[in-house]
Amino acid sequence: MPSDLVMNVHEGQIENKSKNSYFVKGNYEYYHYLCDDFDDRGWGCGYRTLQTICSWLTHNLQTNVKVPSIKQIQDILVCLEDKPKSFVNSRQWIGSFEVCLVIDQLYNVPCKIIHVNKGDNLETIVESLKHHFVNFGCPVMMGGDVDCSSKGIMGLHIDDKESSLLIVDPHYVGKEETREFLQNKGWVKWQPLGEFLSSSFYNLCLPQAKAICKLNQ
Question: What is the C-alpha separation between 139 and 207, in angstroms, rounded?
Fold first, then answer.
């Protein structure tokens, strides 16, 4: 897997919303389309967000488990009998449930799944996300909107008028690997809950893991 990916790509956004905000704790790498020269454009966002979460687990749980490739993720899901053999080497996307299965299998970490029927109801997850970042601090996967796109959640800002999520978007294609560039181009951004699709459902995967490293406590 690539070793030159941006670490902690959300840093710099913390200062924008410091009060009543909660963030991922610990180090992770930003995985995105084509970051390892494997072309997954149009279908690999769930895999890339999973890889980002796996990088956090690898860095912060003091484990030797490496971040799996897309092919390895597909193999795991077939071995778990969640997918048929034809799934391997396919371009079929994965969602929060599959992410939960892979994390549990590789890292022995359970995940909490939250289902939101409509984007209009996203305010109902605010307290759950606050609890997650305060007590665990692991990145969260969000998926399930109309175009089935997935994204990482690295923070939460609670506001009386409208709360926001700190989104890390895996759909970026390019070699410009700096926090400043990615944030300026909107690949890492605060997104108010009202900007999510009101008529879409959303699924969130919250890995129940705490950072072991003292620097990340």
Answer: 8
Q: Give CA angle at 29 (113, 83), nearest 5°.
A: 45
Q: pLDDT tens string for the chain (217 positions)?
A: 666 899 999 998 766 666 889 999 999 999 999 999 999 999 999 999 999 999 999 999 989 999 999 999 999 999 999 999 999 999 999 999 999 999 999 999 999 999 998 767 888 999 999 999 999 999 999 987 665 689 999 999 998 889 999 999 999 999 888 999 999 999 999 999 988 888 788 999 999 998 875 444 3
Among 2, 4, 1, 3, residue whose Cα is nearest residue 177: 4
DSSP string, 128-161: HHHHHHHHT---EEEE-STT---EEEEEEE--SS
* Residue whose C-alpha is closest to residue 205's, from 147, 131, 152, 135: 152
Residues belonging to the active site: 45, 169, 171
Question: Which domains does the chain possess?
Answer: 14-210 (3.90.70.130)
DSSP state of 30: -
Residues composing the chain: 217
Q: Which long-range contacts (CB under 8 A, 24 or more apart) does 152-155 make?
A: 152/49, 152/52, 152/53, 153/129, 153/204, 154/10, 154/23, 154/24, 154/188, 155/10, 155/13, 155/14, 155/17, 155/21, 155/22, 155/23, 155/24
Q: How far is CA 156 from CA 54, 74, 197, in A?
A: 20, 31, 18
